[in-house]
Amino acid sequence: MSSYVKNKGLLCKAQGCHQNAVCKGFCTKHYQQLKLRGKLLEKDYVFIQGFCKILGCGRKVFAKDLCQTHYKKTKGNSHAD
Ligand SMILES: [Zn+2]
Ligand SMILES: [Zn+2]
After folding, report:
1. pLDDT in tens, 18-71
2. How far is the CA of 11 from the centre of ligand 1 (A)?
3. Domain locations in the chain as residue ranges
4. Ligand 1 centroid distance, CA of 75 (Å)
């Protein structure tokens, strides 16, 4: 109940999660998810390395290493417009 925060500068690796990392770089919740499921729940995280593979895009991965925009473009290749 003090304003003093002990902080080693280690936060959970799951993006958007600001809990202190307690194990392998994850907070308790996310570490449990990894332990139980072998991966994090998709809705609950975006890995920092999860960026679109298209050079210079920089958007977050939506599917198959592509962002939503590029994924749709790839998928829509067979669709003549
Ligand atoms: Zn976390
Ligand atoms: Zn992209």
Report:
1. 889 999 999 988 888 888 888 877 655 444 457 888 889 888 888 888 899 999
2. 8
3. 8-47, 49-81
4. 32
